[in-house]
Write a structure and sequence with these properties.
Layout lengths: L9 H15 L11 H6 L13 E4 L4 E2 L6 E3 L3 H18 L5 E2 L5 E6 L9 E6 L2 E6 L2 H14 L15 E2 L2 E5 L5 E7 L7 H13 L4 E5 L1 E2 L2 E2 L8 H4 L16 H13 L3 E8 L4 H6 L28 H16 L5 E5 L8 H17 L3 E5 L12 E4 L7 H12 L3 E4 L2 H4 L21 H5 L15 E8 L7 H8 L3 H9 L7 H9 L2 H7 L15
Parallel strand pairs: 3-4, 3-5, 5-7, 10-11, 10-19, 11-14, 14-15, 15-16, 16-17, 17-18, 18-19
Antiparallel strand pairs: 1-9, 2-8, 6-7, 6-9, 12-13
Helix pairs in contact: 3-4, 5-7, 9-10
The chain binds acetamide.
The site of acetamide (ACM) has 4 residues, from loops.
Length: 536
C-alpha cells in the first residue's frame, strides 16, 4: 500500500489514515485503547509520530535492526556526533553494538546532501536494506533521528536490554517545519532548577523537535545568572525563591554548559532578563537601582506587578548595559528577551522611555530583542519579536495593538496563556499549577491554529509558538513533566506540522501511543480522560 498525503484534503487524508491504520492492525479507533499485543507486532506506521510529518509515503518492506546494523555517517565531526547520539540511545535497549562507520552499505545512514530540505527539514527512507536520513544541514539530520526514535518501539528508550524486534516501517517521510521558532520556556526564577534538571527538559524538548529554550532568568523572587559587574544580583538576589527555599543561580560556566548542551540538541537558548517590572531581586540587591535609594527585602511570595526599575536614573541604564553585555557574551543565539510584562508599577510614559533606551542596548551587543507583547505598547525596534501571551478574553484593544504592530513588521511568537501556558491546571483538581488563565485540558491546548489565531495579524508575522512553564508551584522535574506532558507535544506539533495535518481525533491516537515511551523514559504525565491511553 502506498499513499502520499502531503497535499490531499483533510477528509481524504484522514480516511486514508484510518484505512492504513486499520490495515496495519496497529491501533483500535475511537475511545477504545490500542491492544498491546498488536502494537508491538507491527512497526509503527511512518505518520504515527509527533509532530506529524509534512508528507509520508507508506510502502515497502520494513527495515529490521540486527546485531550487524551499523550507523553510517558522513566524514564530518558533526554528523558523527549525531550518529553517536543516536547509537547512545539505541545501544542499551537493543544490546547491539551499532558501530559508527563512514563506509559500507545498509544499516542506518545519516547523510548530508543538497536538497530542498531548508534549515531543519529531512527525508527518512526505510526499506529492507536500511534506513537513510538525508538533510542539507545537521539540524535536519537530528530531527530525522527523533522521527526514527519514535518509529521504533517505546522500549527502545529503556536503559537495559529489551527483547525487540526493532523494526522501522517501509516508506519515505519528507519533512520540514511550518515555523522556524518552536520554543519552550522554563521559569528558573520562581523556583530554581539545577543544570541537570534543565538538561533533562532539553532532552524532552528535542524528542519533539523544539528548537528554542527560553530561560526566564530573573524575576521578583530570584536572579539566576552570575553578572560579574553586579555580583550581588546572583549572590544575594539569587539566594531565595518562592516559599523561602535556598534558590540558587548559574555561574557563567554552568550557564555555558546549558547553552552547549542545548546546542548539541539543536536548541538555541533565549535568555530573559525581565525589566522594568518583575525586578525585586535586583532592587533588593542594589539600593541605588531604587528611586528612593532604599533596597526592599527579598521576596518569596507570588504576587506580580509591584516592582519597577527607576526609569529616570542613569544608573538603571548602566545596569541594563552591563547585564545585557555580559549576557550577550554568553549567548551564541540570536535573541535576548527583555521581558516588559506586567510593569504595573511603571507609568506608561516611563515604560515607553525605558524601552526606547534599552532596546538599542540589545542591538549594540549584536542581539535581536524579544519582549512580552506589552512591548507593542511602546516602540518595538525594527526586527523585534513580540511574545503574545493573551487569552481569548483579552480585550479587543490589546489584541488590536499587537496585530497593528505585527502589520508594521513586528514578528510574533504565540504563547496564548489559556492554550499553551503549561503551568495552567488541566482541571480544578490538578494538584499543581495555577488557574488564572483558566483550566486547560489537552484538547484545548492543541486545538487552535497559530496562523489565524490573532485577529488582524498577518499569518506571515507569526514566527512560531512557545510553551512557557511558570514555576510558582513547580519544584521538581516530576512537577514540570506532569504539567508538560501531555500538552508539550501538542505545542511542538503546532509549531512543526502543516496546518493540513491538524486533527484532534487522529492526534489523540498518536498522543496516546507516546505514553509507553514516557514510561520508558521515566517521564511523569497527566492521564487526561480526553486521550485513549493504552491500558497495559
Ligand atoms: C506573563 O505571563 N506575565 C508573561
Amino acid at each position: 500500500m502506498r499513499r502520499t498525503h502531503s497535499t490531499t484534503p483533510r477528509t481524504t487524508r484522514v480516511l486514508g489514515s484510518l484505512l492504513l491504520v486499520a490495515a496495519a492492525g496497529v491501533f483500535t479507533l475511537g475511545a477504545a485503547p490500542a491492544a498491546p499485543a498488536a502494537r508491538t507486532a507491527a512497526p509503527t506506521p511512518l505518520d504515527q509520530v509527533i509532530p506529524a510529518p509534512a508528507s509520508v509515503t507508506h510502502g515497502g518492506t520494513p527495515y529490521r535492526l540486527t546485531r550487524a546494523t551499523g550507523v553510517r555517517v558522513d566524514d564530518s565531526a558533526e554528523v558523527r556526533r549525531i550518529g553517536a547520539y543516536l547509537a547512545g540511545i539505541l545501544r542499551p535497549s537493543t544490546g547491539y553494538p551499532l558501530a559508527l562507520t563512514d563506509h559500507g552499505t545498509g544499516g542506518i545512514r545519516l547523510h548530508l546532501a543538497p536538497g530542498d530540505f531548508g534549515a531543519e527539514g529531512y527525508r527518512l527512507h526505510s526499506d529492507a536494506g536500511g534506513v537513510t536520513i538525508t538533510a542539507s544541514a545537521p539540524a535536519g539530520l537530528f530531527h530525522g533521528v527523533q522521527t526514527l526514535r519514535q518509529l521504533l518501539p517505546p522500549a527502545v528508550e529503556k536503559k537495559t536490554a529489551q527483547p525487540g524486534p526493532w523494526q522501522i516501517a517501509g516508506g519515505t517521510v519528507q519533512d520540514r517545519p511550518r515555523y522556524s521558532y518552536r520554543g519552550a520556556m522554563l521559569d528558573v526564577s520562581r523556583h530554581f532548577l539545577t543544570v541537570d534538571q534543565v538538561k533533562r527538559y532539553i532532552d524532552q524538548l528535542a524528542l519533539y523537535k523544539l528548537n528554542e529554550l527560553h530561560l526566564h532568568l530573573s524575576d521578583d523572587q530570584g536572579w539566576r545568572i552570575a553578572i560579574d559587574s553586579w555580583p550581588r544580583l546572583a549572590a544575594y538576589g539569587g539566594s531565595t525563591e518562592v516559599g523561602g527555599g535556598p534558590g540558587g543561580y548559574y555561574t557563567k560556566a554552568q550557564y555555558q554548559e546549558i547553552v552547549r548542551y542545548a546546542a548539541s540538541r539543536y536548541l538555541e537558548v533565549v535568555p530573559e532578563i525581565d525589566m522594568p517590572g518583575h525586578t525585586n531581586a535586583a532592587l533588593a540587591s542594589y539600593a541605588e537601582l531604587n528611586c528612593d535609594g532604599t533596597a526592599p527585602p527579598l521576596y518569596t511570595g507570588t504576587k506580580v506587578g509591584f516592582s519597577s526599575l527607576c526609569v529616570p536614573k542613569q544608573v538603571t541604564y548602566d545596569f541594563a548595559d552591563d547585564v545585557i553585555r555580559e549576557l550577550a557574551a554568553l549567548t551564541p543565539g540570536r535573541y535576548l528577551h527583555i521581558g516588559g510584562d506586567e510593569a504595573h508599577s511603571t507609568s506608561h510614559a516611563d515604560y515607553v522611555a525605558f524601552m526606547d533606551r534599552v532596546q538599542p542596548i540589545v542591538a549594540k551587543y549584536g542581539k535581536t530583542v524579544i519582549g512580552w507583547h506589552q512591548l507593542t505598547g511602546a516602540h518595538p525596534v525594527p526586527g523585534a519579536l513580540a511574545q503574545y501571551w493573551g487569552l481569548d478574553s483579552t480585550s479587543a484593544a490589546e489584541k488590536d495593538q499587537v496585530a497593528k504592530a505585527a502589520r508594521n513588521g513586528t514578528g510574533l511568537i504565540l504563547s496564548p496563556a489559556d492554550r499553551i501556558y503549561l503551568d495552567m491546571k488541566y482541571t480544578k483538581d490538578t494538584r499543581l499549577g495555577l488557574d488564572w488563565a483558566g483550566l486547560v485540558e489537552v484538547r484545548r491546548s492543541y486545538d487552535w491554529n497559530p496562523g489565524d489565531y490573532l485577529p488582524g495579524a498577518p499569518a506571515s508575522a507569526v514566527r512560531g509558538v512557545e510553551a512557557p512553564m511558570w514555576s510558582e508551584t513547580l519544584k521538581e522535574s516530576a512537577d514540570i513533566e506532569y504539567m508538560a506532558f501531555p500538552r508539550l507535544p501538542g505545542a511542538a506539533e503546532l509549531g512543526w506540522s502543516p496546518a493540513a495535518t491538524h486533527d484532534w481525533d487522529t492526534y489523540k491516537v498518536r498522543l496516546a501511543a507516546q505514553a509507553p515511551r514516557w514510561d520508558a523514559l521515566g517521564i511523569t504525565y497527566y492521564r487526561s480522560p480526553q486521550v485513549p491511553w493504552p491500558t497495559n
